[in-house]
Structure to design on (120 residues):
């Protein structure tokens, strides 16, 4: 699925720190915990809670965030639509990784079991 170059550039420059509070709000509003959010982020990126906080404090862009990440090999199993895009069809690698994260957060907020979200 094609995304626009403007959309892809926005993903590149956006900071993890600017989006993280929205993730927390989204999952907590639906009765999930920040710990579960950290678990999901760690599964995708291999960043433990301390590293996640360090990246927030450093205000890294999503480009830097995913350059440092060790993407879970099972990330390719993340499928579905998020923000109007089918994640498995997104052609820009960085945009796809950001949308993988968005999809996992969405699944957590919708009450999906952690075991299913983690796709292990």
């Amino acid at each position: 699925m094609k995304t626009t170059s403007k959309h892809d550039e926005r993903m590149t420059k956006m900071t993890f720190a600017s989006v993280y509070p929205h993730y927390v709000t989204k999952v907590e509003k639906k009765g999930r915990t920040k710990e579960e959010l950290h678990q999901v982020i760690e599964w995708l990126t291999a960043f433990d809670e301390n590293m996640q906080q360090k990246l927030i404090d450093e205000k890294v862009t999503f480009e830097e965030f995913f350059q440092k990440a060790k993407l879970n090999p099972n990330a390719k199993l993340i499928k579905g639509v998020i923000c109007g895009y089918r994640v498995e069809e997104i052609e820009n690698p960085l945009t796809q990784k950001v949308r993988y994260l968005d999809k996992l957060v969405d699944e957590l907020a919708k009450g999906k079991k952690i075991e299913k979200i983690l796709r292990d």
The CA atoms of residues 38 and 52 lie 8 Å apart. The chain is about 60% helix and 5% strand. Residues 5-112 form a domain with the Helicase, Ruva Protein; domain 3 fold (CATH 1.10.8.290).
